[in-house]
Design goal:
Elements lengths: L2 H14 L3 H4 L2 E7 L2 H19 L1 E7 L2 H10 L8 E5 H9 L26 E13 H7 L19 E3 L5 H13 L8 H10 L3 E4 L3 H9 L5 E5 H8 L5 E4 L5 E10 L7 H10 L2 H11 L2 E2 L21 E2 L3 H18 L3
Parallel strand pairs: 1-2, 1-3, 5-6, 5-7, 9-11
Antiparallel strand pairs: 3-9, 4-7, 4-8, 4-9, 4-10
Helix pairs in contact: 3-12, 7-8
Length: 341
């Protein structure tokens, strides 16, 4: 063997003897949320995970609807290894076979509501749907804080209420609650639409944009809104006088959720990432960053604020997404015809 060949062979053997991460670092692609959650994951969670697992994580921020659409489009050649999306789209992703089983995840430490997807996914953070109100205006008028979904019908709020439309989760869950309160359900939604016709005259705007909702409160145009506990808490932390009310009939739960993506060659690091996201340490980080109540019972919360924990968690109700998802498009069309004309 020539000297050059001996050197080349020696280099090859030396490279093969290097630790795995130095040979070719494994990659993991995670589709998740944007905003403060993305910032917390990038700055406080990913560096430690990458170091401990010898993996490079590519994080793709976006909204749940777009993530689900990409999962469907890439069904035969998935780019993502892990997906973080809301509970409604997650329920659909599970039913369509887009999420892999993760039987090794210890779900005994998780809140029961986090386990509604079986072993195909898990709740990640909990948000309550309820009523945001301007505490200063209510006090000046001598009004008691809202306590019921029926308060949306009160004529004293005419033209002063803002709520997301039906194609937004908060708007949809409001209609579900109104249906349940009037003898209906997800499978019998007519009473919900009938009740919304009594609410509609009080609505200033059916507004999906968080920035616009806060603007309408800041300008004094709106004083009552349907919104999520995490959004209201973030708004209140700016110093604006708002509080969050848990309606006595129940506050629908909205969950962020996580699953490993079903693919032909799944990465073993995907389940490790999911385990890490459900750990008490990371659950605490996510709670502090995004205002979502942890699903891990051992997580410590520094600033519980308006989060649905303790007694507040007892008022949460879960929607039946298996019933809702197949008829959601039909509901949206009906909403356009009957409510938001």
């Amino acid at each position: 063997m020539s000297r050059r060949l001996r050197i080349t062979a020696g280099l090859a053997l030396a490279l093969l003897s290097l630790p795995g991460p130095l040979q070719a670092q494994e990659s993991l692609v995670v589709a998740g949320y944007g905003g403060s959650t993305e910032t917390a994951i990038r700055e406080k969670i990913l560096p430690k995970f990458e170091k401990e697992n010898g993996v490079k994580v590519t994080y793709v921020g976006g909204n749940s609807t777009d993530t689900l659409a990409r999962l469907l489009a890439q069904r035969d050649n998935q780019e993502y290894d892990v997906a973080l999306i809301d509970d409604g789209p997650m329920s659909r992703a599970v039913s369509l076979g887009l999420c892999a089983s993760t039987p090794d995840i210890d779900r005994s430490k998780l809140q029961p509501v986090a386990n509604i997807f079986g072993d195909k996914a898990s709740g990640l953070g909990i948000i309550a749907t309820g009523l945001m109100y301007n505490t200063k205006v209510f006090k000046e008028n001598g009004w008691a804080p809202p306590t019921s979904w029926n308060d949306l019908k009160d004529p004293k709020y005419k033209g002063k209420i803002v709520m997301p439309p039906l194609n937004n989760g908060y708007g949809l869950l409001t209609v579900v609650m109104l249906a349940r309160m009037n003898g209906g359900s997800e499978a019998k939604i007519d009473p919900g639409f009938a009740a919304m016709k009594d609410v509609a005259p009080n609505i200033l705007a059916f507004e999906p944009s968080p920035a616009k909702i806060t603007e309408l409160f800041q300008t004094g145009q709106a004083i009552l809104a349907v919104w999520g506990s995490s959004r209201v808490q973030a708004f209140a932390e700016t110093g604006f006088p708002v509080d969050f009310a848990y309606p006595k009939e129940g506050a629908p739960v909205v969950m962020t959720a996580i699953c490993t993506v079903a693919k032909k060659a799944p990465s073993p690091k995907a389940e490790a990432f999911m385990k890490m996201m459900l750990s008490p340490e990371v659950q605490s980080i996510l709670a502090d960053a995004g205002g979502t109540a942890p699903v891990n019972k051992d997580a410590v919360i520094q600033r519980p604020g308006m989060m649905p924990v303790g007694d507040k968690a007892a008022k949460l109700v879960a929607a039946d997404w298996q019933v809702i998802n197949p008829v959601r498009d039909a509901w949206n069309k009906r909403w356009t015809r009957e409510i938001e004309r």
